[in-house]
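Input structure tokens:
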């Protein structure tokens, strides 16, 4: 097993390793050795009753309608995490009987309407159950069922609205784009072109439109073109309608949107002479499931010779190495995300449940159910890894301006309201904004967990 950098993660890994030699496991092995015959020829042979019981317990857990409670006591929380790690170890080793029993116990002790620890453990239990059953088992699809487009949209919208998570990244990225535009105003004919490799719902761009409008006047119009890649024509049409409708409220600003399906050739992109070109890789590189695709994408970006490239990624060490290291890294990360939501939303909030079920929960289950070559396998890395990747493809970092850092802090202070906010050098709870890579990037943290990092680059 590879080493984990974080001390807490190392302790959890040691715990998971210790589980393997637990006395109860050894007793089970002895009982198995005493049974010379009747060794199952299939891992699920004789487990139909346990699987049925597991699904019954899960269904009962989902039907519970209890209001969320205050955080559990440390002892209970540690016991829950310990049981979760025991289960992950059993699933990783394909010990079906033990894994099913532990999953049943997990579902018996958690609820989606309880504190943040129980909620996050519930989704990790679901991810483990799906991994154990595999895609071939009928109940896999029930556990891994995708939310509808409407459910995805509202979950994303609610997270954007209540948490600084996406807002921080959007405003930080847009400030860097505006500064690149300003540096070239004498030669770019006041034209800015953004190529967004994953335009999603387009929520990043209204603030950029407004910032450009503030620079426009009757005799000095500003032009903004956004070329956005999306997963479906319907999504692109809705995004275009949303952005075009917003831009109509700003005079002296020419706005144009070109939507392309993800994977389309860049040959068809409409470009203006001498325009400032920005490439937006916002949570995009992590969706590419192998290094070859990452490399090919960065080579294409480099060939466009953009003025600036924005890279925003979730911080982590979740490349598909050992399953347990990926599991523990993900658990740390999403525990912080769930914990931060409790600060902004009432404990009985339907918005919070929707965010967790249709957005964060979906990510958790996908992270635990990857195969090599799987298009759903996200590859979250540390900032140091992304930096090495960018530099190896002939990109140099652009240090964020002092204005960008000040704006990030101000935005965080405004958006978090009563939630405590810390800045670089402070170590108590709440959200923090700090510099990374010797001031080469800006990161958002919840307590001591780095959630995401934004950086800017240019080709060399």
């Amino acid at each position: 097993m590879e080493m984990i950098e974080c001390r807490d993660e190392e302790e959890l890994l040691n715990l998971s390793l210790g589980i393997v030699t637990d006395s109860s496991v050894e007793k089970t092995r002895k009982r198995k050795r005493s049974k010379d015959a009747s060794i199952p020829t299939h891992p699920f042979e004789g487990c139909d009753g346990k699987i049925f019981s597991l699904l019954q317990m899960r269904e009962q857990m989902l039907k519970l309608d209890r209001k969320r409670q205050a955080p559990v006591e440390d002892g209970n929380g540690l016991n829950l995490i310990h049981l979760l790690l025991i289960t992950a170890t059993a699933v990783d080793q394909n010990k079906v009987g033990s894994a099913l029993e532990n999953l049943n116990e997990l579902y018996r002790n958690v609820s989606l309407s309880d504190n943040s620890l129980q909620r996050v453990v519930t989704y990790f239990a679901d991810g483990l159950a799906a991994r154990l059953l595999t895609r071939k088992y009928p109940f896999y699809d029930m556990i891994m069922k995708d939310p509808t487009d409407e459910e995805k949209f509202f979950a994303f919208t609610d997270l954007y609205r209540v948490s600084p998570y996406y807002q921080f990244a959007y405003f930080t990225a847009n400030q860097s784009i505006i500064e690149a535009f300003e540096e070239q105003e004498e030669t770019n004919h006041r034209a800015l072109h953004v190529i967004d490799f994953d335009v999603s719902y387009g929520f990043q761009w209204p603030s950029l439109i407004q910032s450009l409008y503030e620079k426009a006047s009757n005799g000095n119009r500003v032009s903004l073109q956004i070329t956005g890649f999306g997963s479906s024509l319907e999504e692109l049409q809705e995004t275009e309608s949303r952005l075009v409708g917003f831009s109509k409220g700003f005079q002296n600003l020419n706005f144009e949107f070109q939507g392309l399906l993800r994977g389309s050739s860049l040959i068809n992109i409409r470009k203006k002479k001498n325009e400032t070109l920005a490439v937006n890789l916002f949570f995009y590189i992590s969706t590419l499931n192998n290094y070859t695709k990452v490399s090919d994408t960065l080579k294409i970006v480099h060939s466009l010779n953009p003025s600036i490239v924005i890279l925003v990624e979730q911080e982590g060490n979740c490349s598909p190495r050992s399953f347990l290291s990926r599991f523990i890294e993900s658990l740390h990360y999403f525990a912080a995300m769930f914990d931060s939501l409790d600060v902004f939303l009432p404990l009985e909030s339907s918005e919070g449940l929707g965010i967790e079920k249709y957005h964060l929960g979906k990510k958790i289950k996908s992270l635990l159910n990857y195969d090599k070559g799987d298009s759903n396998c996200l590859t979250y890395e540390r900032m140091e890894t992304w930096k090495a990747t960018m530099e190896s493809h002939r990109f140099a970092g652009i240090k964020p301006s002092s204005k960008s850092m000040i704006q990030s802090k101000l935005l965080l202070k405004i958006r978090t309201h009563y939630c405590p906010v810390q800045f670089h050098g402070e170590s108590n709870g709440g959200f923090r904004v700090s510099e990374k890579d010797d001031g080469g990037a800006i990161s958002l943290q919840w307590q001591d967990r780095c959630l995401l990092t934004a950086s800017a680059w240019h080709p060399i």
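Confidence is low (pLDDT under 50) at residues 1-41, 66-73, 420-428. The chain is about 50% helix and 15% strand.
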